[in-house]
């Protein structure tokens, strides 16, 4: 027998009869978007870990240089105190600054090691390879002109983020998936009306002989038979289908709200990141000017110290500010 059933109301059309397949395909597309986003996030984390490691190494180098300068200053002050040319209090001030910088150097060394381990983990190194975590050797890229971060450019950044962010694309695809499911559940509220056609062949020989395959064509044949029917089913209230539809409808609205909130967050994050970038560029430029100014001032203070026109306290203050400006840069 061959049965052919054609739904005329409920489950009519590909979007209803094939809703499960369409929803599964849509879910797969959303998962692919999200997978790409996760990969991009891992790449970002790795790149960020790289530059954090490089910055920590440079910070350690700067503080080490500052420690060497503090040691040099301490030795000079000690020589002057031993010669009776300076107050012993000045030696204590130089010693305190030297110890403070040594403490900062120890912390900087630990941070450099920690950031190298973070980079190694982000790169996917195995546990046995972590003891030889790689060093970041490339220098920072050239500082861009902050004037290039105009509002029009920022808007382009936002548009590109909404166009390329996999998590947002996945959220949009989730709306499509939920819409498919919602439409299917709405269709289930309709009554069932099915047209069925049954084709068959009666009178076949059911004996055990192998020849029945051939004799069936001429033995006890009643011929082809055809049966058609129209089946109608309509639950009186159909509350289960209505409840399912309302639930999916609410989930569909929730998916839209989630997508809208995500788009707002992405736009806000891009705007904040752009503002932070502009602020960081300004901070770098100001720190660069500050380093040059403190360097010239320190050279002048050293000359005055040799001529006896300056106290060691003033020199230590300038050296501390010079070191701090270098770290900020």
Protein architecture, described:
There is one protein chain. α2 runs antiparallel to α5 and α7 packs antiparallel against α8. By secondary structure, the chain is mainly alpha-helical. The protein is built from eight helices and three strands. The chain has a three-stranded antiparallel beta sheet with strand order 1-2-3, with no helix packed on it. The chain is elongated and about 130 Å long. Helices cover about 70% and strands about 10% of the residues.
Which short descriptors sum up this protein?
3-stranded antiparallel beta sheet; mainly alpha; 70% helix; 329 residues; single chain
Structural class designation: mainly alpha
Shape designation: elongated
Strand and helix order: EHHHHHEHEHH
Strand order of the largest sheet: 1-2-3
**Low-confidence sequence ranges:** none
Query: How many H/I helical runs?
Result: 8
Largest sheet: 3 strands, antiparallel
Summarize the amount of helix as a percent range: 55-70%
CA gyration radius, whole angstroms:
39 Å
The oligomerization state is single chain
What is the tally of beta strands? 3
Overall average pLDDT: 82
Distance between the termini: 84 Å
DSSP strand content: 5-15%
């Amino acid at each position: 027998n061959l049965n052919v059933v054609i739904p005329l109301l409920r489950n009519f059309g590909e979007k209803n009869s094939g809703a499960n397949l369409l929803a599964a395909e849509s879910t797969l597309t959303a998962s692919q978007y999200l997978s790409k986003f996760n990969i991009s996030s891992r790449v970002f984390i790795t790149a960020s870990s790289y530059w954090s490691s490089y910055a920590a190494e440079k910070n350690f180098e700067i503080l080490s240089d500052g420690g060497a300068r503090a040691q040099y200053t301490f030795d000079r002050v000690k020589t002057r105190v031993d010669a009776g040319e300076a107050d012993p209090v000045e030696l204590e001030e130089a010693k305190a600054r030297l110890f403070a910088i040594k403490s900062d150097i120890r912390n900087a060394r630990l941070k450099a090691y920690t950031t190298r381990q973070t980079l190694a983990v982000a790169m996917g190194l195995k546990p046995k390879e972590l003891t030889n975590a790689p060093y970041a050797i490339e220098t920072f890229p050239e500082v861009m002109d902050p004037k290039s971060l105009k509002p029009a450019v920022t808007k382009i950044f936002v548009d590109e983020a909404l166009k390329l962010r996999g998590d947002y694309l996945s959220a949009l695809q989730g709306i499509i998936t939920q819409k498919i499911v919602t439409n299917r559940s709405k269709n289930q509220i309709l009554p069932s009306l099915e047209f069925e056609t049954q084709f068959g062949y009666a009178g076949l020989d059911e004996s055990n002989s192998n020849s029945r395959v051939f004799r069936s064509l001429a033995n006890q044949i009643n011929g082809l038979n055809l049966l058609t029917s129209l089946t109608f089913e309509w639950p009186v209230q159909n509350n289960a289908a209505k409840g399912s539809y309302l639930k999916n409808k609410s989930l569909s609205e929730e998916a839209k709200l989630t997508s809208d909130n995500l788009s707002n967050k992405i736009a806000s994050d891009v705007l904040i990141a752009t503002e932070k970038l502009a602020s960081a560029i300004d901070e770098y430029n100001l720190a660069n000017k500050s380093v040059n100014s403190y360097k010239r001032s320190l050279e002048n203070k050293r000359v005055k110290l040799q001529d006896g026109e300056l106290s060691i306290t003033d020199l230590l203050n300038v050296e501390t500010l010079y070191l701090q400006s270098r770290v900020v840069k």
